[in-house]
Design goal:
It is a single chain. By secondary structure, this protein is α+β, with helices and mostly antiparallel strands. The protein has one domain. About 35% of the residues lie in helices and about 25% in strands. It has a five-stranded mixed β-sheet with strand order 1-2-5-4-3. It is globular. The two termini are about 30 Å apart.
């Protein structure tokens, strides 16, 4: 059996990922940041960095602000990109007062085909790939 004759045994769609909570649709805010395509973030990124710790909440951090930071930095990285489907960028998350309470996190943004071959963006931690 050659490559073109291979039968798909199983597939998992983007829509299923959103429905299952593995991917979180952030397209509305992404439009405000300048994205023209639908955007999701991985649940792992959301849980580990976009959702602030209780300590960070005490210092004014919230999900909407952190999500905006991720989307804005992704948009800026995409604008600087010279092509390809992967961008790498960093976001600094404040977790309390002073520099020792900051985390600089490297993220990936991947533009690829969605369930109907339309362009879509997924923002993730590198280990989510």
């Amino acid at each position: 059996m050659d490559h073109q004759e291979m039968e798909v045994i199983s597939s998992y769609s983007r829509a299923q990922g959103i429905e299952d909570g593995v991917l979180i649709d952030v397209s509305e805010m992404a439009k405000e940041a300048g994205f023209k395509f639908p955007v999701v973030v991985t649940n792992n990124l959301w849980a580990s960095h976009i959702t602030p710790s209780e300590r960070a909440k005490k210092y004014g951090q919230d999900e909407q602000g952190r999500l905006w930071d991720v989307l804005w930095m992704a948009f800026l990285a995409a604008k600087r990109s010279t092509g390809g489907d992967l961008i790498e960028f960093e976001v600094i998350f404040q977790n309390g007062p002073g520099s020792k309470w900051r985390d600089t996190i490297r993220l990936w943004g991947i533009c690829g085909p969605g369930d109907n071959a339309e362009p879509v963006v997924t923002i993730m931690l590198p280990e989510d790939y």
